[in-house]
Amino acid sequence: MTGRLQNFIGGAFVDSESEESIDIINPADESVVAVSPVSTAAEVSAAIDAAEKARIAWGTTTPKERADVLLKLADAVEAHADEIVEAQIRNTGQLRAMVKNDEVLISADQLRFFAGAARLLEGKSAGEYMEGFTSYIRREPIGIVGQVTPWNYPFMMAIWKIGPALAAGNTIVLKPSDTTPESTVVLARLTQGIVPDGVFNMVLGTGATGAELVSDPRLGLVSITGSVRAGIAVAAAAAATVTRAHLELGGKAPAVVFADADIEAAASGIAEASYYNAGQDCTAATRAIVHSAVYDQFLEALLAKVATIKPGGVDDEDAFYGPLNNIRHFTTVTEKIAALPEHATIATGGTRVGDRGFYFAPTVITGVRQDDAIVQEETFGPILTVQTFDDEDDAVAKANGVDYGLAASVWTTDNGTANRMTARIDAGCVWVNGHIPLVVEMPHGGFKNSGYGKDMSAYGVEDYTRIKHVMSANT
């Protein structure tokens, strides 16, 4: 065990006075690896106090000064990558190489992007829009931002939150997930001596801690990446104080395969996008919607690919993904499989792997109907359903026929089909002949129950600013 974790307030680690704590469990072997406090309301308030104290000085720094801080932090992340990885895999059981290459090192690059974006904020051209007056736009920091991060990519999601917020000149109080706090604790330590005291603060705890944070009226914006249920709670708390909300919530991404697609490539790409990180990705391909003319061919190719995919330990070179993150989530996924209707068929998987750790087999389910819960509800596990469609309108109806709208993919060799489908699918990101890669230069965020606001890109930085119109008489 690594002992009891501490909050990070005003540039220093401080012990919590809370008598309530939670064990941090390694989902790979179910061992206790740390103990986290459940921060008190007073400790949450103290973190906000620290952010308030630092707000004016940080908000009035120049873009270059903020960029320099982010660049130094990126260097620190890169230099301490192995330490961050070790902290994270204790809490997640994710594959070591995946965490280092696909999360930590990429996060350093993302910080460098946000450093550049800090110096490129835009507004409408200054000019005389009314005779005798000159108008111009100021983009200003919002102030104090409350942020809540999830457990599926705990370090990278923290970077997605703090990068644009710091670039825009805001101060932060962040609460990491109660099951995966340790990589964020390392991040907090790395900010020391780089980010001014009080600009970044971290409080540990449960959902109740997050609720305490986002309901504080001193916040100018609250941001969460999490479930729809959590997002609704955050939005309601924000509404009570007329506070802006930034919500990146769940997904139920369709992958639509047309008859002219490269079927082998589609089956392989969709399988990898479905089971990456054990399916614990809000953009994961969860619903293959396949033209009836190639359904049998696709299913055969898909099952052949899935047969090569298996979960395993952090250093298992043959493993494609690790365990589900926690016992609550493992139980939920298991219950969804147990509740399948009689007309659904488990073509492969559907079971626990091993008797220790929360490992779950890659699962393919056929025979499902559009209104089945397994089609409509986010599973957030290594589960892929397969449906058929007969024409383009049917494909669109099934792709859009859920409450989510985060991501989707279209598999076709016809440019016209691709253009029509990407326009008609109701999702914040649509890939063509691919699924799941994201780049920091482009926005990430969804529609419908998948939330609102954008992570990454210049649009993400803009979300952390407020716009002020200044109008000056020319006399």
From TrEMBL:
Any single Pfam family the record assigns to this protein: Aldedh
Gene3D superfamilies reported for this sequence: Aldehyde Dehydrogenase, Chain A, domain 1, Aldehyde Dehydrogenase, Chain A, domain 2
A GO molecular function held by the record: oxidoreductase activity, acting on the aldehyde or oxo group of donors, NAD or NADP as acceptor
The protein's name: Putative aldehyde dehydrogenase
SUPFAM superfamilies named among the record's database cross-references: ALDH-like (SSF53720)
Keyword rRNA processing included in the entry's annotation: no
Family named by the database record: Belongs to the aldehyde dehydrogenase family.
Highest classification ranks of the organism: Bacteria, Bacillati, Actinomycetota, Actinomycetes, Mycobacteriales
Annotated InterPro entries: Ald_DH/histidinol_DH, Ald_DH_C, Ald_DH_CS_CYS, Ald_DH_CS_GLU, Ald_DH_N, Aldehyde_DH_dom
NCBIfam families named among the record's database cross-references: PRK13473.1
Active site: E248
Keywords carried by this UniProt record: Oxidoreductase
Domain Aldehyde dehydrogenase: 13-470
